[in-house]
Amino acid sequence: MSTVLLPGATLGVLGNGQLGRMFALAARRMGYRVATFGPGTGTPAGQVCDLEVDADYRDEQALRAFARQVEAVTFEFENVPAEAGELLAEHVPVRPRETVLHIAQNRWREKTWLRDQGFPVGDFATVESEAALVDALERLGTPAVLKTAGFGYDGKGQALIRTPADAAGAWQAIGGQAAVLEAFVDFHMEVSVVAARGTDGSFAHYGVFENRHRDHILDVTLPDAPVGPQLREQAEDIARGILEALGVVGVLCVEFFVASDGRLLVNELAPRPHNSGHLTFDASLSSQFEQQVRAVAGLPLGDTRLLRPAAMVNLLGDLWQDGEPDWAAALADGQTKLHLYGKANAKPGRKMGHLTAFGDDREDAARRALAARERLRGGGGHR
Ligand SMILES: Nc1ncnc2c1ncn2[C@@H]1O[C@H](COP(=O)(O)OP(=O)(O)O)[C@@H](O)[C@H]1O
Ligand SMILES: [Mg+2]
């Protein structure tokens, strides 16, 4: 039905951050041309694309011009206005389709959709006013987490509510806007499944990753989360069910909590490659970015097997606070790979790059990755 876009074709990506950069690197390696669209020049993606369009996502004229320059469009950033996806879809295939973007960019719609489809989610309520928040707190109890419906990432737009007395402060802290209130999940592990679906409905996934967070930001990812075969299968089945129900063509990541009572709960969706899948770039036969290229181009998906035990650690801007990190020291372990995103300003909490390390087993790889990051600070540094 859909035509295959062969190497030489130009793939468009909405967004110009690190996910677009790694998509472009994978695509160009396979001989595609890549164009990025988003505000700014010299961006992480723009640096490695054939074309960097500096425009606002609401600029219809620029979007139309972009549509004429590309043969398919994907995105690396879900907070693109859904109208941009709709407009582009009138001219070129948008993969995943704009409905996926519409649902996944808004926690309210996403959580409601997941629940209505029968996927397991924790207790939540949608709230539009402080009064509604007070009511919802009565039903859900405390602690609870209040999250803005739109534009949240890396824990931004969230407020923890410890007691009902925190309601007013939390409502103000998130800017008094449409939000989702979630019961606090007492979890013993956070895991994710990065999966891909092709134009022919084929499905591939990378198993279950274990994600360790720090200050609500992903810190370390290890493959093969120790969750037991039953939970692993359940997580993979849920991921498949979600990609199929949404009709995703592309890559989508499902973030889960493994609750202390053993339940597996979906936390959120990311309709694109995900930070927890970065280790696939070096450690898997086909990376999550190559899968995105293959899916968007209508090619068969690649084999996802892990070639060797690996672990990923993020490099945040905090590492720059005493000057340029000691890259040579980090790379002294030859089993460590450095990825930097080409961002000029290192701000605390900003994702600047990551390290992937290999090892004899997953924990050995994680130790090597953490040790390499420690050496970046000249050995003696700490947060
Ligand atoms: N309901 C919850 N219960 C417990 N911890 C939570 C809850 N919601 C979020 N968190 C913590 O905050 C992190 C970030 O929240 P998340 O909803 O994934 O937002 P985002 O990743 O978009 O910032 C989660 O990975 C988890 O560690
Ligand atoms: Mg998250």
Number of domains: 3
Number of helices: 12
CATH superfamily of the largest domain: ATP-grasp fold, B domain
Mean pLDDT across all amino acids: 95
Q: Provide the low-confidence segments as ranges.
A: 379-383
Strand content: 25-35%
Please give the CATH architecture of the largest domain.
2-Layer Sandwich
Question: Can you tell me about this structure?
Answer:
The chain is α+β, with helices and mostly antiparallel strands and 383 residues long. The protein has three domains: 10-95, Rossmann fold, CATH 3.40.50; 123-183, Dna Ligase, domain 1 (2-Layer Sandwich), CATH 3.30.1490; 187-376, ATP-grasp fold, B domain (D-amino Acid Aminotransferase, Chain A, domain 1, 2-Layer Sandwich), CATH 3.30.470. It is 31% helix and 26% strand. It contains twelve helices and 17 strands. The protein has helices at residues 18-29, 60-69, 82-89, 98-104, 107-116, 130-140, 167-173, 228-246, 280-283, 288-297, 327-330, 362-376, and strands spanning 10-14, 33-38, 51-54, 72-75, 124-127, 144-148, 158-161, 179-183, 187-197, 203-205, 209-214, 217-222, 250-259, 264-270, 310-316, 336-340, 351-358. Strands 9, 10, 11, 12, 13, 14, 15, 16 and 17 form a nine-stranded antiparallel β-sheet that branches. Strands 3-2-1-4 form a four-stranded parallel β-sheet, with helices on both faces. Strands 5-8-6-7 form a four-stranded antiparallel β-sheet, sandwiched between helices. Strand 11 (209-214) and strand 12 (217-222) form a beta hairpin. Helix 1 packs across helix 10. The relative contact order is 0.12.
